[in-house]
């Protein structure tokens, strides 16, 4: 799902904040400011999952095995994708794809497959699996509308970055730049592509898998750098 991170125009470089971001002053208060898209574009690339690490379970056996592996992990990077709407009053009907990422792979569930939908619903409702992502507010509504269940046991990383002093939604791109000093590529053309397609393109698969995978890697970085924020 598309995420929009805050951007600020600047006339001079900002001083660095203790956690790797920039900072701005408001009265006596100093707040970190997320790096701009242009700034993160200069960083080394995030090592993404490759196609052989991306799994699309469809049969009942494959879906059951994926659920078992994700539950055993206990924590997963999480995101959803939906076919975009362009007309006023047009209903979304998503999510059409739901992603769960582990430390070395990602599972993409296409919900037009009955087995995939059932497995995905089980994971979404599970309190045994912590689902970690960015900007999950829209995901809650779409999941409730399509599947009739609540998205439970989630950690929206936007909330963690607010504790660090960032305003609004920082997003995966900016968070990757702040914590890992890496560039995370986001393609608007892929974000707005047809996620309801029966067969997803290679670009869609890589994009969807790595959105969820990046969230998990950012959580791991937060656990190393700011562990106290995750236990509050």
CATH class: Alpha Beta
What proportion strand? 15-25%
CATH fourth-tier homologous superfamily: Ribonuclease H-like superfamily/Ribonuclease H
The CATH architecture is 2-Layer Sandwich
In percent, how helical is the residue content?
Answer: 25-40%
Tell the overall outline. globular
Order of helices and strands: EEHEHEEEHEHEHHHH
Structural class: alpha/beta
Mean pLDDT, nearest integer? Answer: 87
Specify the biggest β-sheet.
6 strands, mixed
Oligomer: single chain
Q: Largest sheet, order of strands side by side?
A: 3-6-5-4-7-8
What do you see in this structure?
The model is unreliable at 1-18 (pLDDT under 50). This protein starts with 21 loop residues before the first strand and ends in a 7-residue tail after the last helix. The chain has a six-stranded mixed sheet with strand order 3-6-5-4-7-8, with helices on both faces. Strands 1-2 form a two-stranded antiparallel sheet. Helices cover 37% and strands 16% of the residues. Strand 5 and strand 6 form a beta hairpin. It is globular and about 50 Å long. The longest helix is centred in the last third of the chain and has 24 residues, at 202-225. It has eight helices and eight strands, in the order E-E-H-E-H-E-E-E-H-E-H-E-H-H-H-H. It has one domain: Nucleotidyltransferase, domain 5, CATH 3.30.420. By secondary structure, the protein is of the alpha/beta class. It has helices spanning 37-40, 60-73, 114-125, 137-147, 157-163, 171-180, 188-191, 202-225, and strands at residues 22-26, 29-33, 54-55, 75-81, 97-101, 106-110, 130-133, 154-156. Helix 2 (60-73) packs parallel to helix 3 (114-125) and helix 6 packs across helix 8.
